[in-house]
Design brief:
Number of helices: 12
Keywords: Signal transduction inhibitor
InterPro entries: RGS (IPR016137), RGS_sf (IPR036305), RGS_subdom1/3 (IPR024066), RGS_subdomain_2 (IPR044926)
Structural class: mainly alpha
Largest sheet: none
Organism: Camelus ferus
Radius of gyration: 19 Å
Helix content: 55-70%
Protein name: Regulator of G-protein signaling 18 isoform X1
Number of strands: 0
Distance between the termini: 9 Å
Pfam family, one: RGS
Shape: globular
């Protein structure tokens, strides 16, 4: 963790994150339009995205120690037990949603719950211009290829959304939201119920700093189909 944080401190924190990424990805700025160069650029983006998520999570742990954990321990074991009855009961409880989001961050798959929350908010929109604006924001952040928080959706679902994004309705993301919900319910939720985060709550134990896990299987397959494994990026 210390090595990673040293790297993070070397980034210019006064610049926007996007500008810093651009410098790291493009280096000297010399153009190379070959197919190999595009693959290398995509590989760099994926690695940097994962690395920065890891570093941000480590910083979050360091800066939110005692106060954050004290708040978590206020959740009663009885409340936490109810979350284990169904995924819907977990998400419908404010503290349950926050705790599940915290768990997903340990697996670097928080984009799933953030997409689900964004869709819930989107369906409450009333003004036509607000619907268009929010739909475009959701599409660019979660749906389109190489989106910063791209969720795992099949090509057909993505195509349907892409064709309708210029004239969206309140139901434009229903299918995608349902697929992501099922993915979390069948995959992440089962691991959440076995995690230290949840078991500590139902046993009434003080919450411990969470450990980083591998990237969840919910990570978009398309992002890694052209990327060679290189563990040195984490060292």
């Amino acid at each position: 963790m210390e090595t990673s944080l040293v790297f993070f401190s070397q980034l210019n924190m006064c610049e926007p994150k996007e500008k810093t990424f651009f410098k790291l990805i493009h280096g000297s700025g010399k153009g190379d339009t070959s197919k190999e160069a595009k693959i290398r650029d995509k590989e760099k983006r994926n690695r940097l995205s994962l690395l920065v998520q890891k570093l941000e999570f480590q910083q979050d742990i360091l800066s939110n120690s005692s106060g954050h954990l004290a708040k978590e321990t206020r959740i009663s074991p009885e409340e936490a037990v109810i979350w284990g009855e169904s995924f819907d009961k977990l998400l419908s409880h404010k503290d349950g949603l926050k705790t599940f989001t915290r768990f997903l961050k340990t697996e670097f798959s928080e984009e799933n719950i953030e997409f689900w929350i964004a869709c819930e908010d989107f369906k409450k929109s009333q003004d036509p211009q607000q619907i268009i604006r929010k739909a475009k924001s959701i599409y660019e952040k979660f749906i389109q290829n190489d989106a910063p928080q791209e969720v795992n959706l099949d090509f057909h679902t993505k195509e349907i959304i892409a064709r309708s994004i210029t004239q969206p309705t309140l139901h434009s993301f229903d299918v995608a939201q349902s697929r992501v919900y099922q993915l979390m319910e069948q995959d992440s939720y089962t691991r959440f119920l076995k995690s230290d985060i949840y078991l500590d709550l139902i046993e009434g134990r003080p919450q411990r700093p969470t450990n980083l896990r591998r990237r969840s299987r919910s990570f978009t397959y398309n992002e890694f189909q052209d990327v060679n494994s290189d563990v040195s990026i984490w060292l």
